Amino acid sequence: MVKDPYETLGVARTATSDDIRKAYRRLAKKLHPDLNPGDKQAEARFKEVTAANDLLSDPDKRKKFDAGEIDASGAERPRQQYYKDFARGGAGAGNPYENSSGFSDFADGDDLFAELFRRQAGQARRTRGADLHYRLAISFLDAINGVTQRLSLPDGGSLDVSIPAGIQEGQTLRLRGKGAPPRGDGEPGDALVEISVNPHRFFVRHDDDIHVELPITLSEAVLGARVKTPTPTGAVMLTVPKGSNTGTILRLKGKGVARRGGYGDELVKLKVILPSPPNAELEAFVSTWAPQISDDPRKDMTP
Q1: In this predicted model, which residue has the larger pLDDT, 169 or 84?
Q2: Is the pLDDT at 183 greater than 80, yes or no?
Q3: 13 and 90 housed in the same domain
């Protein structure tokens, strides 16, 4: 139940406007949340005295209250909330705290409390808009090479996001001034775009290097060859040395991810693939082939 505003401010019903102003000023100095951080009881009392002052400092509302035409809550509009929220949440035109004029009762002194209100009023006018958060999924190759991609917004608008080469999963890009508009004379907020990178079907990234497994034929492994090898920027020719085995790793310098002062490398892991279906000629050759030196590829696997 809303308390009687006269009781809340501790003044008589015959109090003058000046008496009401002084009573409110005295209580507000004592109960202001900025002077009582974390004190929920003081915050609740501050709301009560603010609502009471709002009603009694308005001659028309006070007259209607005294005549019983409105109740202690003001009746014509919902009870106000915390003073910092008065300028938002539907208070509407005429709200005494919507601009600096609402603090005029405190602006006639030069004490610390008056300065606090003047400073807060100025800060409220200059408050920047809120930052807005988005998430954007891009392809693996776009993350490596960089791209400009359009982000569709929930309100139907869009933003063109410039993705730098080498961006990583989870990195956030800040688009200055592309967030929510300010409430007053401040600057708009920023758009914060978190990047999600989709996996690639054969490339894998480790730090600034790219790893790929490259299938080669048995003859390419035995005799050596020049084979076409994919990289994030296009295919290149790779020299496979004679006698290469599955698991042999070859390095392509500068074919990795862009980094400060250069690029990472691409590490190519060879994988020998036998013909499919099986090749009868190869089977016949191997069955008659007798190497002069016995080679046991499992000799190092003795427990």
Answers
A1: 169
A2: no
A3: yes
Question: How high is the pLDDT of residue 114?
Answer: 61
CB 205, CB 231: distance < 8 Å: no
Give SS3 for 138: strand
Q: Does the pTM of the predicted model rise above 0.70?
A: no
- Hey, what are 166's tokens? 């080498």
CATH at 137: 2.60.260.20
Give 84's contacts (C-beta < 8 A, 6+ positions apart).
Answer: 120, 124
User: Is residue 293 domain-resident?
Assistant: no
Any residues with CB less than 8 A from the CB of 54 and at least 6 apart, and which?
61, 74, 80, 96
Determine the residue type at 221.
A
Q: Which two tokens stand for residue 270?
A: 């060879």
| Per-residue pLDDT at 200 exceeds 90 | yes
CATH code, domain carrying 66: 1.10.287.110
What span, in angstroms and rounded, lies between the C-alpha atoms of 290 and 282?
A: 14
Residue 43, in any domain of the structure: yes
- Does a structural domain hold residue 288? no
- To which residue do tokens 């401040």 refer? 186
- 89-143 pLDDT, tens per residue? 443 444 444 444 445 555 455 566 666 666 665 565 567 888 999 999 999 999 9
Domain containing 177: what range?
132-197
* Sign of the CA dihedral with 60 first, then 63, 66, and 69 last: negative
Q: Quick check: is 181 in a domain?
A: yes
User: Do 182 and 250 sit in the same domain of this protein?
Assistant: no
Return the structure tokens found at 285. Answer: 């050759």
Q: Domain count of the chain?
A: 3
